[in-house]
Input
Amino acid sequence: MTSGSGNSIEIRPLDWNDAPALAALMADYAAAMGGTVRKPKPDSALRLFDEPMVGVVGAWNGGALVAFALFFDLPEAISGERAGQLDDLYVSPNARGHGLAKALIAHLTEIGRERNWVHLRWLVPEDNAAALRAYEEISETAPWQSRVIWLRRELGY
Output
């Protein structure tokens, strides 16, 4: 994949070596979501790699991590199979408009095919019209609604 400026975009799974870059992007994401703004902590990113059902893929441009998607590989009760749950997807503001969100989701779709998932599902903030329009092109509306109970309100967004 290439961006409009001619730079090559690489999408690949992230690992321990990518923790500092992921931590910085996670801090930007938290700020963008209205969460508590924190200094980037590589330990936060490293914890993700310790979780056996968690995966993280990233998009790199010119050696810089510009987007990431965090997903779960979960059991699915209705089918008795497994499903993918995209939990977080973030594209840095300076990298938007080049199809990176769709490319990350396409990458997760390929992972899902390899793992024989029943489906890939994700949540979209209702006030993100651009994301909703983009996702309408590649997915369908799920027959469920998301709900939340905040257990640590100070970390809410």
Summary: The two ends are 33 Å apart (CA to CA). The CA atoms of residues 120 and 143 lie 13 Å apart. The chain has a mean pLDDT of 88.
